[in-house]
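Entry for the shared binder. Reason: the reviewer on the internal report wants the predicted structure included alongside the sequence.
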Amino acid sequence: MRHAGTPFELSISVDEAHVTVSVLDHDRAHVPHVRSPRPQDTTGRGLMIVERMATSWGYEDVATDAKTVWFSL
């Protein structure tokens, strides 16, 4: 798994209706966005896969130097 190039924390929560996965990292400079990689590209598919599989996803700034990207299934 490649993520942000900084240390990160992965959290998973489960309730009666959803599984939510959150990844906290210390790189607020790079806003997550869905890419359209070419077949020969070796990166850029993560959020595209998340968007297609998840019922919802998003991100939020959680500190002056950190953000959380999350998705629910």
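Summary line for the report: The two ends are 20 Å apart (CA to CA).
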